[in-house]
Amino acid sequence: NKRVILRDYVTGFPKESDLIFNDTTIDLKIPAGSTTVLLKNLYLSCDPYMRIRMGKPDPSTAALAQAYNPGEPIYAFGVSKVIDSGHPDYTIGELIWGVVGWEEYTTFTPTPNSHHFKIQHTDIPLSYYTGLLGMPGMTAYAGFYEICSAKKGETVFVSAASGAVGQLVGQLAKIMGCYVVGSAGSNEKVDLLKKKFGFDEAFNYKEEPDLDAALKRCFPEGIDIYFENVGGNMLDAVLLNMKIHGRVAVCGMISQYNLENQEGVHNLPTVLYKRIRIQGFVVSDYFHKYSEFLDFVLPYLREGKIAYVEDVVEGLENGPSALIGLFHGKNVGKQLILVARD
Ligand code: NDP
């Protein structure tokens, strides 16, 4: 069983050498009397919050994610097939998505809080359950509908807009009838936003370092809703461009995850002057709405009214570089690893 192990707690940007491989032999049969389930992992998801887990245990981030243990496999969301089961709720051959180790096979004991979902709709590519139909899709749905209080005709800005979460947020905002702008870190991504996901406008923040000017050009009347994925300078520039009573849904702050000292936000008084509501949220608080989300999103997907772009690397051995690539903007769309085809 090939596995990806955290060598030691990470400081700064993660490097490939922070993750090492080991190979163990495992029994592909559940022992008699055990209530565990043995999974073969097909796809593994690369997600920015995994960097938070790679750092030293920290009370301020523990409310979002506990640190991984050095010397043990890292874990994340994945799509897996049940290959043996001692648990009455799981049968051989079933497909599930949920938290698994970064390894070829994972054993788990189902609990009511273990966040494993059975995959019922197999007409959709299975890999989508790491993205659009999995945790990131649920994040976009919960963040947009529960936190943003969006109304038709409002102006919406999404950062890291072409990524796993952002691409769906923009499309949900368009479905609601909003004017939607996204930022991304390459011209290829900007093209995707405008041509594939239907954003009204998009800009490359790396080529336009005057973020205030870029935002003023795209939002001459100001921003009603900011779906925050990056933090740092972008948040500062956005605050100055918010409308009175604007809302900021804080989904993520990827620009801060690798910094030892977090950057300050200078324009916070604007929150008072413009009566802005800033609210963070964490997707796991909304997993009880997963079937509602599927009922909502599947018809749009099947009718081709929602598009989704993935960036798939093949082989567990290429997982570490794919994960690290997230922090350099290498992924175009949802980053995931194909571990096994079936
Ligand atoms: P993405 O697919 O968007 O991948 C990460 C992207 O972030 C990169 O491709 C890059 O895009 C951008 N990025 C990386 N470093 C920086 C930086 N220093 N400054 C600006 N942008 C940067 O990831 P996800 O869609 O999976 O996640 C997006 C955000 O949502 C993250 O902050 C993540 O932590 C958060 N999240 C929060 C959840 C919650 O429950 N609250 C759940 C899931 C995700 P580009 O080329 O455009 O720079």
Automatic annotation (TrEMBL):
Residues 37-337 form the Enoyl reductase (ER) domain. Pfam families: ADH_N_2, ADH_zinc_N. GO terms for biological process: response to oxidative stress. SUPFAM superfamilies: GroES-like (SSF50129), NAD(P)-binding Rossmann-fold domains (SSF51735). It comes from the Eukaryota. InterPro entries: ADH-like_C (IPR013149), ADH_N_2 (IPR041694), ER (IPR020843), GroES-like_sf (IPR011032), MDR_fam (IPR045010), NAD(P)-bd_dom_sf (IPR036291). Keywords: Oxidoreductase. CDD domains: double_bond_reductase_like. SMART domains: PKS_ER. Signal peptide: none annotated. GO terms for molecular function: 2-alkenal reductase [NAD(P)H] activity. PANTHER family: NADP-DEPENDENT OXIDOREDUCTASE-RELATED, PROSTAGLANDIN REDUCTASE. This is Enoyl reductase (ER) domain-containing protein.
